[in-house]
TrEMBL record:
Protein name in the entry: Malonyl-CoA-acyl carrier protein transacylase, mitochondrial
Record keywords, A-Z: Coiled coil
Molecular functions per Gene Ontology: transferase activity
Stretches of the chain forming a coiled coil according to its record: 44-91
Highest taxon of the lineage: Eukaryota
Cross-referenced InterPro entries: Ac_transferase_dom_sf (IPR001227), Acyl_transferase_dom (IPR014043), Acyl_Trfase/lysoPLipase (IPR016035), Mitochondrial_malonyltrans (IPR052760)
Disordered: annotated span: 1-21, 493-514
Domain (Malonyl-CoA:ACP transacylase (MAT)) ranges: 176-489
Length: 514
């Protein structure tokens, strides 16, 4: 048999079709010979086979698509039917009284799903409510539905929501700034997502010479032994970073609840917190306040190094008894000993400070006193608000005097920790003396809070770490404690999450949660 010639024209006389040759000679070697691409019948057969395969793939794809569309349609119908059913049931509940509604909703966990949907619709509902000013809608049915559903969702997550009345939602807001005893490592970490907080951090870094989030680095072998938080025990570093954290926390409040700042009518600070309060009130700008805090911290650090001193937290003893104990400790020590009340935080809750020998005696005497609930050392090494700060007082006053001409009247009321109120619009002439005198005079925080409550402040936001002031508020006024929120200044990865901290924003401008 002649070999197959791929260049041979099929129209010419020559060998027969390869298929015929294979049928005639069933030799396995010949079966491996490729098909003739020039043969018309072979080409048509291959094209027809390819077309059948393409059609089968198309039909299979169409069946899959139809199945998906049918599944989505059924799911959508089921979801709509479930939504209508839950909406109908929730509307019936909304018609009940508040007490009946709570009892009913707590029994029926089925409303949890409707609650999550209602939360998503809450901004639109609140917007509708705000636009309907001309109508008498104290609590529209849709708004009642949203509130009831949100309460169920919160209860399902273990959170209690207290909706405020119109009067409560219009109460004046006060910002609270704690002292340096609230310090905590990485307390700026959770605020770096805010552009303005990052700007404040960069401005502080330029002025202080170190990154407030990272610290100045290891200062010596002692810092290595104390661990990564050791640098915060230095007053000269701790106070400027606390000042920055407090004002950066205000930016978080601005981001999460801008309405609260619109209603802010007052600020109050405990010791160091006075400087952040004055900055927010517009008395001076951020950089001026930071320079004042920086010098304050440096002169206090120098005064602390001049004589061994310490501070104690004492709770459970009447002020008269504690004053007697302090006097006994002074008499039992040397003539130059100092021992006295430095901060009046809440009824029978104090910080005492003085020379180390006198404070060691006070620790033992307070422990043996009947009724004493707590007495412990504070990490703060200095005896602020005592006569041991006399040298720091003079230097601080000189700096503040240089700022006097640039100070502005506060735009809102300022309650200083010494118990003095500076009303909005009043001349700041007396501020340098008040702030300098603060270093050697007791801080009367309980009187400050009482004065704010007397003036009508009904909602409080603690701008700083560790929710120290929120805990103190509980011992001053129970209702005010319920109206106090601590701003979270930590990262989400951090383990420290203070109780009662500000929840994430779930509905911008919804107006349902205050």
């Amino acid at each position: 048999m002649a070999a197959w010639d791929p260049f041979l024209d099929p129209a010419d006389d020559g060998p027969q079709d390869l298929k015929v040759e294979l049928d005639r000679h069933p030799d396995p070697v010949l079966k491996d010979v490729p098909l003739d691409p020039w043969n018309d019948s072979t080409f048509v057969a291959l094209a027809q086979e390819a077309a059948r395969e393409a059609e089968e793939r198309y039909e299979a794809a169409m069946k899959v698509l139809e199945m998906q569309q049918e599944s989505e349609r059924k799911e959508s119908e089921a979801k709509e039917a479930r939504r209508l059913k839950l909406e109908k049931e929730a509307r019936e509940i909304a018609k009940l009284s508040i007490q009946e509604r709570r009892e009913r909703l707590l029994e029926r966990q089925v409303y949890a799903e409707m609650a999550m949907e209602a939360i998503g619709q809450a901004p639109a509902i609140a917007a509708m409510h705000r636009k309907s000013k001309g109508r008498d809608l104290d609590e529209p049915e849709d708004l009642a539905l949203g509130r009831a559903a949100a309460q169920i969702a919160a209860a399902d997550m273990g959170v209690k929501i207290n909706f405020k009345s119109k009067d409560e939602a219009s109460r004046p807001v006060a910002l609270l700034f704690p002292d340096q005893n609230s310090k905590s490592l990485k307390m700026l970490k959770g605020l770096q997502e805010l552009p303005e907080a990052r700007r404040l951090r960069e401005a502080s870094r330029q002025l202080l010479g170190f990154d407030p989030l990272e610290g100045p680095g290891v200062l010596g072998f002692y810092e290595l032994l104390r661990g990564p938080e050791g640098w915060l025990e230095h007053t000269q570093f701790c106070q400027p970073v606390m000042y920055l954290t407090q004002l950066a926390a205000v930016e978080k409040l601005r981001d999460k609840r801008p309405g609260a700042l619109e209603r802010c009518k007052a600020v109050a600070g405990l010791s160091l917190g006075d400087y952040a309060a004055l900055t927010y009130a517009g008395v001076w700008d951020f950089e001026t306040g930071l320079r004042a805090v920086q010098l304050r911290a440096e002169v206090m650090e120098a005064a602390i190094a001049a004589a061994p001193q310490a501070a104690l937290a004492v709770a459970g003893l009447p002020e008269e008894l504690l004053q007697q104990l302090c006097e006994q400790c002074r008499e039992a020590s040397s003539e130059a000993s100092v021992c006295g009340i430095a901060q009046r935080l809440f009824p029978q809750g104090f910080v005492c400070a003085g020379t180390l020998a006198a404070m060691e005696q006070l620790l033992e005497r307070a422990r043996r006193s009947q009724g004493c609930k707590q007495v412990q050392w504070l990490k703060l090494a200095g005896a602020c608000h005592t006569s041991l700060m006399d040298s720091a007082k003079e230097e601080l006053l000189n700096l503040l005097e240089s700022f006097r001409s640039s100070m502005q009247p506060p735009r809102i009321d300022v309650y200083l920790s010494c118990g003095t109120k500076v009303p909005a619009g009043r001349s700041p002439e007396a501020l340098p003396e008040l702030l300098a005198q603060q270093l050697t005079s007791p801080a009367n925080w309980s009187d400050t809070v009482a004065l704010m409550l007397q003036d009508g402040c009904g909602e409080f936001y603690e701008c700083g770490p560790l929710n120290q002031l929120k805990g103190i508020m509980k011992r001053i006024d129970a209702k005010a404690h319920q109206a106090t929120v601590s701003l979270d200044v930590y990262s989400e990865e951090g383990q420290m999450k203070p109780g009662g901290s500000l929840p994430p924003r779930w509905a911008q401008g919804a107006g349902c949660l205050s």
